[in-house]
Amino acid sequence: MERKNAWTTYSEADLTKLDAICAEYVGFLDNGKTERECVQRTVEMAEAKGYRNLDAVIANGDKLNAGDCVYVNNMGKAIMLFKIGSQPLEKGINIVGAHIDSPRMDLKQNPLYEDTDIAYLDTHYYGGIKKYQWVTLPLALHGVVAKKDGTLVNIVIGEDPHDPVVGISDLLIHLASDQLGKKASVVIEGEELNVIIGGRPIEGDEKEPVKANMLKILKEKYDIEEEDFLSAEIEVVPAGPTRDFGLDRSMILGYGHDDRVCAYASINAILSIEEIPEYTCCCVLADKEEIGSVGATGMSAKYFENAVAELINACGNYSDLVLRRALTACRMLSCDVSAGYDPNFAGVFERKNAAYLGRGVCFNKYTGSRGKGGSNDANAEYLGKLRKLMDDANVNFQTAELGKVDQGGGGTIAYICAAYGMEVIDSGVAVLSMHAPWEIISKADLYEAVKAYRAFMLNA
Ligand code: MN
Ligand code: MN
User: Fold this and answer.
1) Which helix (H) or strand (E) holds 251?
2) Span from the CA of 382 to the centroid of ligand 1 (angstroms)
3) Which of 78, 110, 314, 399 has the fewest CB atoms within 10 Å, i.e. the most exposed one?
4) Beta strand 152-157 with 78-83: parallel, antiparallel or unpaired?
C-alpha cells in the first residue's frame, strides 16, 4: 500500500516549523563535519537548554529528580542526553539513538610526503565509499592534533570562503583508455587517495623543499611539527556549505546526512520537551557505526549501560537488578538513514518496500543482508504499538527495507541495544546518493523525523 507524500498534508504553520527546523539543521551540518564537531555542537545546544554534565552531578554528589536534564560526553566523540521522567528508571527509558560518524578519508599517521614538486597527505578511507567519487572535489581538513605536552590543536582548513581547499586529482580523459576499462571498484584505488596540499618550494637547499614549506606553514599557523601527525585525527571531508537542493528548495544537499540528519532530529526532539516526561528520555549519538560500532566510542562499548547505572545511582536506588530491569524495559528507535528510492537505479529496489523521498519518516522492521543476516528484526507487537503512536501524533511515516532481496544490505546500531532485551526498531530518513560526498534528503522527511522522535519519547 502506498503512503502519501507528506508535502500534500502541510498547513502554513507546518511549513513555518519545517523551515525553522531545516535552517537549524543546515547550521548543525555546516558546523558538524566530524563526530567531534557534532559532540561539541550538541553540548552547546544542550547546555543552552539547561542540561548539566553528569560528571559534575556525580562530583557534587547531587541527586537527580524528575525533570532534571543531564548529558554524558564520551571522549568528545559520542554523547548522550537524558531528561529524567516521573516514572522510575526501572520502568525503562525511551531512547532515540543515531550515529554521528560519516564516511570520509582519515590522514594516515605518517601522511606527509613530497613527489615531483607536489606535497601530499596520504589517507586511509573510513566507512564504505565509492572511491572514484572523492576525486576532483574541493576537500577540507577537519580534526585535532594531540601534542606531547597534552594540548589539543583544532584544525579546520577549507570551510571559510577565504580558506584554500585541498583535493585529489583524477586521470585526464585523454589518457584514460586503460582506466575506463577497469571495474568501478578499482578505477580509483585506496592507495591513490592522496590529497594534494601544496606545490611551492621553500627557499634554500632543502632536500624536499615543497614538503618543508608545508611544515613551515603548519608550524606558523598551528605550532605543530611533522611528528605531531603521529597523534592526530584529521578527517578529509567535502569542503563547503550545505545547500538547498531543487528549484522548489524541497531538499537539502549536504555532507554526512548519514546519519547526522537522524542525530539532529533526535537532538531537536529531546530538547523540545519542556514538560516532565512520563518515562526518562534519552538521545544517544554514537561514533564508529560506519566501521562496525567498534571502539570505546562505538555503540558496542558499555557507555550507555554505565550511564544508566549512574543515573539510577543519582536517583537514589542503585542495584544490579534495578539496572538490568531498566535496560530490559527500554524502548528504542535506532535512528538511521534509509536508501531513498532512485528511479535512475530502479532495478535494485523493490517498489512496494522502498523508502521514498518526501513520504515521511521511515520504519525498517529489519535491515541486514542475505536472509536478514545481521539485522535486528523488530517485534510485530512493538511495530503495532508504534503505528498507533505515529497516527495519534499525525506523523507521516512509511516502511521500507534496503533494496531488493540479495541485492546488498547494511546494518545499524539496533542489534547492539536489542541485546539487552529491549524493544528496538530502525527508523530514519530516506537519502539519495548515500555515502557519496554530497547526499540528498527531503526537508519533509526531516520534519517528520523530528515529529516522530518527539512523539516517541513522550508517548512510547
Ligand atoms: Mn547510517
Ligand atoms: Mn552509513
Assistant:
1) strand 251-254
2) 22
3) 110
4) unpaired
First to last CA, the chain: 25
Q: What is the pLDDT of residues 367-393, one digit of tens each?
A: 888 888 888 899 999 999 999 999 999
Residue type present at position 442: S
Q: How far is CA 242 from the centre of its chain?
A: 15
CA of 418 to the centre of ligand 2 (A): 19
450 CA from centroid of ligand 1 (Å): 17
| Residue 70 to residue 80: CA distance in whole angstroms | 8
- Cis bond upstream, residue 287 (ω within 30): no
Which ligand is closest in space to the CA of residue 99?
Answer: 1
Q: Is the CA virtual torsion 122, 127, 130, 134 positive or negative?
A: negative
Spacing, Cα 250 to ligand 1 middle (Å): 22
Grid cell, residue 60, equals: 557534587
**Amino acid identity, position 192:** E
Ordered domains of the chain (ranges, CATH): 6-102+255-459 (3.40.630.10), 104-238 (2.30.250.10)
Determine if the pTM surpasses 0.85.
Answer: yes
Output the nine-digit C-alpha cell for 128.
Answer: 564504505
Distance 264 CA to ligand 2 centre (A): 15
User: Ligand 2 mean position to 103 CA, how many Å?
Assistant: 7
- Would you list the DSSP string of 413-451? SHHHHHTTT-EEEEEE-EEESTTSSSEEEEHHHHHHHHH
Which among 337, 440, 351, 330 has a CA at the least distance from the CA of 404?
Answer: 351
* pLDDT tens digits, one per residue of 287-302: 999 999 999 999 999 9
3-state class (DSSP) for residue 37: helix
Whole-number Å distance, alpha carbon 335 to ligand 1 midpoint, is: 8
* Pair 150, 246: CB distance under 8 Å: no
**Strand stretches in 14-157, DSSP E:** 52-53, 69-74, 78-83, 93-99, 104-115, 118-126, 139-146, 152-157
Neighbours of ion ligand 2 (CB under 5 A): 258
Residue 452 class from Cβ within 10 Å (0-12 exposed, 13-18 middle, 19+ buried)?
Answer: buried
Q: Ligand 2 center to residue 259 CA distance, Å?
A: 7
